[in-house]
Amino acid sequence: MSELDTVDFFTDLSIVGDPAPYFAKLRAQCPVLREPHHGAMMVTGYEEALEVFRNRDAFSSCVGVTGPIPPLPFTPQGDDISEQIERHRPQMPWTAHLAALDGPTHTAMRAMLTGVITPTRLKNNAQYIAKVADRLIERFIDRGRCEFVSEYAHALSTLVIADLLGVPEEDRDELIELLGKPPTQIGGDAAHKIGPDPLVLLEERFTGYMRQRRGNPRGDMMSDLANARYKDGSEPELAVPVRLAKFLFGAGQDTSARLMASAFRVLAEQPDLQRQLAADPGRLAEFIEETLRLESPVKSLHRLARLTTSIGEVAVPAGTVVTVALGAANRDPRHFPAPEEFRLDRPNVRDHVAFSRGAHACPGAPLARTETLVTLQRFLERMTDIRICEAQHGPPHARHYEYEPTYLLRGLSALHLEFIKRH
Predict the structure, then answer these.
(1) What is the C-alpha radius of gyration for the chain, rounded to an integer number of angstroms?
(2) What percent of the chain has pLDDT over 90?
(3) How many Å apart are CA 172 and CA 296, to the nearest integer?
(4) What sign does the dihedral 360-365-368-371 (CA atoms) show?
(5) What is the DSSP string of 40-99?
(6) What distance in Å separates the CA atoms of residue 162 and residue 156, rounded to the nearest whole number?
(7) Exposure of 25 by Cβ count < 10 A (0-12 exposed, 13-18 middle, 19+ buried)?
(8) Quick check: 255 and 155 in contact, CB under 8 A?
(9) CA atoms of 154 and 102, how far apart (whole Å)
(10) Looking at residue 32, what is its pLDDT?
(11) pLDDT single digits (tens) 227-280
């Protein structure tokens, strides 16, 4: 028995930084395999992951954020537990928010969100992102080094989503503190009960913002949400856009910051690739997609089988928590040849599922891509020889990085970079 045979994906800190060997071992046994610690069905294959995302009838997103921790507040009974799910939904974590909704409710709220995150808004916002990027870079460029995660990535993503939404500048620091740590912290969320709305501490403030904007729109995203209508023309209760705005404020920071940090780790570890991209910035979009495939910022998403069904010909009883390992699906050798290699010219790179697929695909994906693209452009134009700080992370081939302790997300806790300022 190898050490990996005893690993608990949901609680074991030893695989937080690099879950790839664990996922590869599971996939080698079967791309759909029940893990022994929590009874979750682990999906590590690419085609099998797509199968789950496409089958909205059989799989509920009510456990989308949390997976098997905490356990279900009911004992599943029968081959169709749809009624049980809806009856107990108020007792389940995150079920007030978009990522855990199902059916017509999810479709209606998703349509509202899609209507305000428009290509035009994101295109116009790129100029603002570049200005913020330069302002942040000015703080450290003369000293030739920075801690990228805190000094740049989180700062940029927080400022951008706050500006897009229209959160007053004087409120931002307080709201970030109220937001707290990312969800599903190993050893954290499982230790106490989480209600259907973990963002409840933001409720009063965002309700106030939305109430103001229903009477006095300001041209920001919260104004558009506050005055959005359902497809039939009816006006949602104020609580609906409030929940969407809170979720965007919370989720709009994490994914972008994690993607940017991963991109710069790859960039700083490969000098030849860095020089190639600096000389040909038109290939930065390809670089971002391959980074997403290889370093998926979301490690796992979860579903609950509402019907007795199957995945890849493996039987899945109703009531089974299904964990789709996005990072594993993106390294499935059946779909991506030499999946452990970073290949800028990978022909099918956009097949990756780093932002999920289907109805629950990440609505903030275009924003994360834009922030990362602008950041790469500004750094490469203003710096050269961007490299990993050996004093903090060790020499090449003996690097050590710390990752945030969560089974949902994959993100560096810190990334210390050194560079030479261009003159």
Answers:
(1) 21
(2) 74
(3) 28
(4) negative
(5) -EEE--HHHHHHHHH-TTTEE-TTTTTTTSSPPSS---SSB-HHHHHHHGGGSTTTTSGG
(6) 10
(7) middle
(8) no
(9) 30
(10) 98
(11) 999 988 999 999 999 999 998 888 777 789 999 999 999 999 999 999 999 999
CA 329 to chain centroid: 15
Q: Which residue has the higher pLDDT, 395 or 115?
A: 395
Compute the mean pLDDT over every residue in the chain, rounded to the nearest whole number. 92
Q: Which helix (H) or strand (E) holds 146?
A: strand 145-147
Strand order in the sheet with 383-388: 145-147, 416-421, 383-388
When pLDDT is cut at 50, 70 and 90, the band that residue 135 belongs to is: very high
Comparing 110-124, 347-361, 379-393, which segment has the lowest mean pLDDT? 110-124
CA distance 172 to 147: 22
Residue 62's nearest CA partner among 192, 196, 230 is 196
Residue from 61, 55, 52 nearest 110 by CA: 61
* 283: DSSP letter: G
C-alpha neighbours within 13 Å on the C-beta side of residue 141:
16
State the Cα–Cα distance between residues 128 and 103, nearest whole angstrom: 36
Beta bridge partners of 349: none
Q: What's the rounded Cα separation, in Å, for the pair 236 and 268?
A: 47
59 neighbors 85 (Cβ within 8 angstroms): no
What architecture is the 3-421 domain classified under in CATH? Answer: Orthogonal Bundle (1.10)
Tokens describing residue 9: 């994906």
